[in-house]
Design a protein that fits this description.
The structure holds two protein chains of two kinds.
Chain A: E1 3-12, E2 15-25, E3 28-33, H1 40-47, E4 55-60, H2 68-76, E5 78-81, H3 93-103, H4 108-121, H5 137-149, E6 155-159, H6 167-181, E7 185-189, H7 193-199, E8 202-207, E9 210-215, H8 217-226, H9 234-247
Parallel strand pairs in A: 3-7, 3-8, 5-6, 6-7
Antiparallel strand pairs in A: 1-2, 1-4, 8-9
Chain B: H1 3-18, H2 22-42, H3 48-75, H4 77-80, H5 84-88, H6 94-125, H7 136-158, H8 164-184, H9 216-243, H10 248-255, H11 257-281, E1 285-287, E2 290-292, E3 310-312, E4 318-320, H12 328-342, E5 351-355, E6 361-363, E7 368-372, H13 389-405, H14 424-436, H15 445-449, H16 458-469, H17 473-488
Parallel strand pairs in B: 4-5, 5-7
Antiparallel strand pairs in B: 1-2, 3-4, 6-7
Classes of the chains: A alpha/beta, B mainly alpha.
Chain lengths: 248, 498
């Protein structure tokens, strides 16, 4: 298992963002759904080794991220795209991706090829030498994806990855996620249930810091058909039915 | 370290250098440098040490706000650009990432600094006739730039806001101002800790010419600023520990004990170095060529620097140190006319020679007039273009005549403090001899009204001087030959002058 969470809790002062979550995930694409404030981003930041858990046991890629040496090894094999991508406007696309490849401690002799491949995968080859300040929001999102995948990570974490992408790019990105899911564990936090339906092999639905549903997109759809969900699409109905049940 | 480990930081550094914000500021820094340091130094005498003083006195002002401000701006980038989360997931530790950003900032700042130093040194190289570029001021200036940049960088890393950079720039400017003020107010009686400031004020014109400038103070300054730099790097290394919640021991465990230990060691070593430098400057004493720190002083540096003087003239050779050979024709043209008036008189100098400060007077056998580059003729040696040449010429001539006529005959080199003000008769004779040489003497009011003039007014002295000057050369010479000993000891009155 690449992700093993046991009774993980994360508190910010008196507020409990993640409440005794237990989760295991191996290779595949796991969609993390939930309303605003459900704790998705906090959970993702713990998986990204940015936040330590307040309590509970967290194991990533078979290592303990609380140990500095283990954490460093996890980070070498990790890709992360935050919800709000910060960037340096004077860097070019290639420089930005190369910068992160080097900070992820990729072997230097592999960096140049890996950067070129990552930039091509997000369809930014023609903009490789463009300064980031000249790119549109969608292009910047793709730069963020490129830096996340440049090191061929075994654990790939995306927070709202398709926000700002046009439909064509969104479809391409879903295919990319499915490709990575063949060998790596991909966790996607999103509000867009169609992303989950198209790309995820599993879904976890969070509400009030807890995981209230874990299953496949098909199982989520079934819940929509049997429950009291509302929405235009079957997945949306499943999503809202589970949330309604959780709140009740 | 393996080649792989070496090349990764080098590549990150290359990206940082290529995309650094510092080059955008370089034109402004260079403009400031030109209008401040370069043009100021252009007015200095062609002495390497004097020119080098522009590095610590002027360049510091030009670079300080930029070094600190740019350091803070670069360090606060992660906070301003919201890249903290993204970077926190990378394997390289924060200190390594910051080191690359700081390294790139220092690369451009030091490159600009060295270019400015090169321009200053080329400026003096085109004029100087002796000596070579001193390196210690360059080292001190470079360390100052590094220290201020690291200071700004630390501020930016700890407080990553938009206002940190301008505040750091203002703070650095104030620091240099305080240091400059302390250095200018430094006296042998005051606390010598002010020597920690790299600023020196404008040094004497012959500093570093007759004696080496001891590196003692420069070493202490480098130790002090280097210590601050190392301590700040230690702060940067341990700072992330204090951002982690959950108690100090938990934070140390998460950050890694070796890293925390390294940070604490750096902090302690830096503080120790700075404190040692502070203590060392407290023991400083004035030596032959500036301030010496006994614990750092090499006595060998007190030995005079050998040189062969450049001389002009045969009847009355005038010699200067080769560092001032450009001034030799003017020096000879000033001294030779008055020396001709003294020729043949008992004890009259047969040549003039430049000596280090506090060594002037008429002495030796045959008598030689020793003058220095700082007293009496300061406006002469290395006088900037546009100086009042007639005035320095007169001052230079008056110095010689006063030494010969009013100074103790053949007393040998003596400090200025022992020179008595000329009596009224001595003033009249000096004024007359200068009038004959085409110059005008100037005596201060205090001398005219003081005891040596015995109440004679300037008008009475002038009248006597005109009378004496109107005599034929032979008559003046004969009278001086007969009455010189009495004139020297102040026994001649105005009325006794012919």
């Amino acid at each position: 298992m690449n992700i093993e969470l046991s009774d993980i809790t994360r508190k910010f002062g008196r507020n409990t963002a993640v409440d005794r979550v237990t989760l295991e995930a191996g290779p595949g694409v796991l969609g993390l759904l939930g309303p605003n404030g459900a704790g998705k981003t906090s959970l993702l930041r713990m998986l990204a080794t940015i936040l330590p858990p307040s309590s509970g046991q967290l194991t990533l890629l078979g290592r303990d991220p609380g140990n500095p040496a283990d954490r460093r090894e996890i980070r070498r094999r990790l890709g992360y795209l935050p919800q709000n991508l910060g960037y340096y406007p004077s860097f070019t696309v290639v420089e930005f991706v190369e910068y992160f490849a080097l900070l992820k401690e990729m072997p230097p002799h592999l960096v140049t090829k890996a950067v070129a491949a990552a930039v091509e995968k997000v369809d930014l080859g023609s903009k490789a030498k463009a300064k980031l300040r000249t790119l549109s929001g969608g292009m910047l999102r793709r730069v963020g994806i490129a830096q996340a995948i440049v090191n061929e990570p075994e654990l790939l974490l995306f927070d709202e990855p398709t926000a700002g992408l046009d439909p064509e790019q969104r479809v391409a990105f879903r295919a990319l996620m499915r490709d990575f899911g063949q060998t790596a564990t991909v966790v996607v936090s999103t509000h867009l249930v169609e992303d989950v339906g198209a790309a995820c092999s599993e879904v976890a639905l969070m509400s009030n810091g807890k995981i209230v549903f874990r299953g496949t997109p098909a199982e989520l759809t079934v819940r929509g058909e049997t429950g009291q969900g509302v929405g235009d699409a079957p997945l949306e109905r499943g999503y809202s039915a589970i949330l309604a049940a959780a709140r009740a | 370290m393996s080649a792989v480990a070496l090349s990764r930081p080098a590549r990150v550094l290359r990206i940082e250098i290529r995309r650094s914000v510092v080059p955008w500021s370089v034109p402004l820094i260079l403009a400031l440098f030109f209008f401040d340091s370069y043009r100021t130094a252009a007015g200095f005498p062609p002495n390497w040490t004097v020119h080098a003083s522009a590095i610590t006195n002027n360049l510091a002002w030009d670079f300080a706000p930029f070094a600190a401000g740019l350091g803070a701006w670069v360090a606060s980038r992660e906070g301003r650009r919201n890249t903290g989360d993204l970077l926190a997931t990378t394997a390289r530790p924060a200190w390594a990432r910051q080191a690359a950003a700081l390294g790139a900032t220092l690369f451009w700042l030091l490159l600009t600094f060295l270019a400015a130093v090169a321009a200053l040194y080329i400026q003096v190289a085109l004029q100087a006739t002796w000596g070579g570029p001193p390196l210690w001021p360059v080292v001190v200036g470079a360390v100052q730039v590094v220290t201020l940049a690291v200071l700004g960088f630390t501020a930016g890393a700890l407080f990553p806001g938009r206002f940190t950079a301008p505040l750091a720039a203002i703070g650095a400017f104030l620091l240099v101002f305080i240091g400059f003020h302390a250095a200018l107010n430094l006296t042998p009686d005051s606390s010598t800790n002010a020597l920690l400031s790299p600023a020196t004020g404008l040094p004497l014109e012959d500093v570093g010419v007759f004696y080496h400038v001891a590196p003692d103070v420069a070493i202490a300054q480098v130790m002090f600023m280097g210590g601050i730099t190392v301590a700040l790097l230690g702060v940067l290394v341990v700072a992330p520990v204090f951002r982690v919640r959950g108690g100090l021991s938990g934070a140390v465990g998460r950050a890694g004990r070796p890293l925390c230990a390294a940070g604490v060691v750096l902090l302690a070593a830096g503080v120790a170095a700075s404190w040692t430098a502070f203590a060392l400057t407290g023991t400083a004493k004035l030596g032959v060529s500036g301030w010496d720190i006994p614990a750092l002083h090499d006595a060998a540096s007190d030995q005079p620097i050998p040189y062969t003087p450049d001389c002009a003239g045969t009847a009355f050779p005038v010699c200067v140190h080769p560092a001032f050979s450009g001034d030799l024709p003017a020096a000879a043209a000033a001294l030779q006319p008055v020396a001709a008036e003294l020729k043949g008189l008992p004890g009259a100098p047969v040549r003039a020679e430049e000596v280090p400060a506090a060594g002037e007077g008429v002495s030796g056998t045959p008598p030689v007039y020793h003058y220095d580059g700082n007293n009496g003729i300061a406006p002469f040696l290395g006088s900037p273009a546009g100086a009042d040449n007639a005035r320095w010429r007169a001052g230079f001539q008056q110095e010689l005549l006063t030494e010969f006529i009013a100074g103790p005959p053949n007393a040998g080199p003596r400090p200025d403090a022992s020179v008595l003000p000329p009596t009224a008769a001595q003033q009249a004779v000096i004024t007359a001899l200068m009038t004959v040489a085409g110059s005008q003497a100037q005596f201060g009011e205090d001398m005219t009204n003081g005891h040596p003039t015995a109440g004679a007014t300037p008008a009475q002295i002038d009248a006597a001087a005109q009378r004496f000057a109107s005599l034929s050369t032979a008559a003046r010479h004969a009278w001086l030959a007969a009455h010189l000993p009495a004139l020297r000891v102040g026994e001649i009155t105005l009325a006794q002058l012919p």
